[in-house]
Amino acid sequence: xxxxxxxxxxxxxxxxxxxxxxxxxxxxxxxxxxxxxxxxxxxxxxxxxxxxxxxxxxxxxxxxxxxxxxxxxxxxxxxxxxxxxxxxxxxxxxxxxxxxxxxxxxxxxxxxxxxxxxxxxxxxxxxxxxxxxxxxxxxxxxxxxxxxxxxxxxxxxxxxxxxxxxxxxxxxxxxxxxxxxxxxxxxxxxxxxxxxxxxxxxxxxxxxxxxxxxxxxxxxxxxxxxxxxxxxxxxxxxxxxxxxxxxxxxxxxxxxxx
Amino acid sequence: xxxxxxxxxxxxxxxxxxxxxxxxxxxxxxxxxxxxxxxxxxxxxxxxxxxxxxxxxxxxxxxxxxxxxxxxxxxxxxxxxxxxxxxxxxxxxxxxxxxxxxxxxxxxxxxxxxxxxxxxxxxxxxxxxxxxxxxxxxxxxxxxxxxxxxxxxxxxxxxxxxxxxxxxxxxxxxxxxxxxxxxxxxxxxxxxxxxxxxxxxxxxxxxxxxxxxxxxxxxxxxxxxxxxxxxxxxxxxxxxxxxxxxxxxxxxxxxxxx
Lengths: 258, 258
Ligand SMILES: O=c1ccn([C@@H]2O[C@H](COP(=O)(O)OP(=O)(O)O)[C@@H](O)[C@H]2O)c(=O)[nH]1
Ligand SMILES: O=c1ccn([C@@H]2O[C@H](COP(=O)(O)OP(=O)(O)O)[C@@H](O)[C@H]2O)c(=O)[nH]1
Ligand SMILES: [Mn+2]
Ligand SMILES: [Mn+2]
Fold this sequence. Notes:
Two copies of one chain form a homodimer.
Chain A: E1 2-8, H1 14-25, E2 31-37, H2 44-53, E3 56-61, H3 83-99, H4 103-108, E4 112-115, E5 121-122, H5 124-130, E6 136-138, E7 141-142, E8 149-155, E9 158-163, E10 179-182, H6 183-188, H7 203-208, E11 218-219, H8 221-224, E12 229-230, H9 240-247
Parallel strand pairs in A: 1-2, 1-4, 2-3, 6-11
Antiparallel strand pairs in A: 4-10, 5-12, 6-10, 7-8, 8-9
The structure holds uridine-5'-diphosphate (2 copies) and manganese (II) ion (2 copies).
């Protein structure tokens, strides 16, 4: 089973992003989607969306404290996004794991945890690659970090270094989309969480350092030679005409969900 | 049957866009994807992608003539994008229609044609809405034209005007994603094509004017009150670090497809 943890927050493209993401996940057998809203309550939009999605899911929410949130105008590398939400997903998994016994518990031993942002693009093959993860599996990520791709470099079947455009000597210079963790490891290392105060580029390391060393990484995707996931980003839609019409009392009907 | 015509062109996010689009289309029964590359030849990337996609498809190509192509730095409203490719798709449909007789020809009578750009987001419900189109069906489009959504306004079951932020009196102020046409109409009106020289905002009208009047439009999506498709756009990925590494001879392996 694959547990996918997705942080998400309200914005104009949210429903569109969740829609196409759900179409991908619907093709993946045995996927359990943990959607964590960055919001003080679960929203109607996400609740309705999930219940109509046809997916197996858990709906959570956890507001990012204001002092940790990017402000309008901040450069987007200033503060990590989604850290609190991913931690909330991990907490749910640990709670769930502690309540399950017997046959189901044995099944959990083979489960995998993946952190999937709502705006990335995932191939179906990716999920087959991560399905057998003993500790932490890794693979290339396309269109990330100002690069065509970043990837672990594999020699004799082992990860020996990383192809990245920036500080290759970080403990784990890997994007969030570039690894999956065995649930067993998550359940037995309860201190492993994302550090929302981590320096830019060190969020993934703050979590992975609790779980493995570079030596333990399991290279997937043909020894890290295939790009199966892309760090796409969606443009923020311009609302110039909407604002002009709003001033004339002719804005788009606010009762229509977008 | 639904024939979906998609123009596409080579760029860093192309494979990612086609990947998530294909995941949506794989859920739609009886969909035939007509992919038209804006390229002098069919590329290996798109050919390989399509043959692995699991979809029923036709692969075409048609290069936009240089004088009609947007140049680096042009504002993106200057020239319509994808017009020649959609026309090539229409030509293929007409050719195909003219060669089919008997029972299959009767099935074509009930088919529908939809123009789906490679970067938009489509709900699955959208395809159920368009499946029964007698002439031209229409519905709202989210996040388009500087608006939360644009849509036909329906009174007593008929489209009477359009909610749009710009020139509502264009013949058909509807985005490409906001309508579908019966194949029968496409086959019997061979002169209906997109005018690649149309003024900005008049591309859809240049095609639809050959087929219907406003009176004929069939409103879908609960009388045009639901947003089932979003005009999302994907950010162009920055390649700053890639370029810096390239200068040191350490760029990403060009043999790895992204
Ligand atoms: O205030 C925010 C901003 C982002 N996110 C989520 O955190 C993840 C990463 O954010 P984003 O995609 O904006 O980051 P980037 O593309 O810059 O890595 C995504 O799933 C977002 O939906 C969030 O929960 N709260
Ligand atoms: O030079 C080009 C630019 C775009 N397109 C395609 O035409 C459609 C519309 O282009 P785009 O999405 O860039 O337009 P916009 O989002 O600005 O409406 C998309 O399917 C693109 O892949 C194309 O074939 N050649
Ligand atoms: Mn992102
Ligand atoms: Mn587009």
